[in-house]
Amino acid sequence: MRTGKKLRRVVMGQHKNDGLLVKSCIYTILAATSILYLNPLLYMFATSLQTITDLIDPAVNWIPSVLEFNNYKLAFEGLHYRQAFQDTILMSTCAAVIQVFSCALTGYAFARMHIPGKSLWLGLILLTFLIPQEILVIPLIMWYAKLGWYNTILPFIIPTFFAQGLKAPLFILIFRQFFLRLPHELEESARMDGAGAFRTYFTIMLPLAKPSMLVVFILSFVWHWNDYFHATLFLRGQEFMALSVQLEMLQNNLNVLSGDMTGTGYISSIDLNEPIKMAASSLIILPPLLLYMILQNYFVRGIERSGLVE
Questions:
Q1: How far is CA 216 from CA 99, 180, 260, 292, in A?
Q2: Cα–Cα distance for residue pair 94/158, rounded to 1 Å
Q3: Which of 27, 87, 111, 145 could be cross-linked to 176 through a Cys-Cys bond (beta carbons 3.0 to 4.6 Å apart)?
Q4: pLDDT tens, 231-253?
Q5: Tens of pLDDT along 196-222?
Q6: Rounded Cα gap, residues 123 and 110, in angstroms
Q7: Secondary structure tally for the chain: helices H, strands E
Q8: Which residues pair with 223 in a beta bridge?
Q9: Which of 113, 175, 168 is nearest to 306 (CA)?
């Protein structure tokens, strides 16, 4: 009888979450979810090291018979990776840093300050989520062309000073939710000490928002890094290169580098096969992936403290 109770305690657990049965179900779900998300990444990395022979060989699935590192060499050259990496990381970092501070200030104003029609303005900001980006393409192109911002990073940087830009309404909402959770006694104590609104914000409230600032920085950096739609519209020249655009131009870049051309244009002497494409994709996603791996613990804590889980 005692053995049966002990076995039941092990299988079912003393509480509903510490039994072997429940843990097995949880780990099974987590393992299945991990495989679902990791499968495309593993396929991409495995394919990027394959030769054409391995690619068409049905017996070769994940592990290549020969590691073809030349795919990465061709992808590196075809992407103009050195210049494109520098330009993309400059654009992504500047936009992310500026958005952190501008959206934090805007979120604080919506959360803690008395503004006439505040709910209406917040609703209008969140309403921008429903506006398709394609509707704004022609006005934006005409506006930026008149300002002389075409083929520069200014369309990605200048709007961020005004708490706009890529996914800015979401970042404002993140900071608003965070500041709403802070006690009002902090501001009351600061006012008793003679601190004004800006001094209270910069010396007390903003330092407390470091978890949300990290979350917004990572999200903004990754979204600007992966942005293809706006980069294709505004960065079509060689003055400033974005990796997402260079991936589209990979075949043409490789043909130019090979020196094959006729009077009518370039001839494809380099076969842009799937392994080279996968190698180029791996080079593009590697920096944000490393950034997230380094800041993973801080990112998860920031999500928990930002109010997004409510």
A1: 8, 17, 45, 12
A2: 10
A3: 111
A4: 888 887 667 888 888 888 887 87
A5: 888 888 888 888 888 889 889 999 999
A6: 11
A7: 18, 2
A8: none
A9: 175
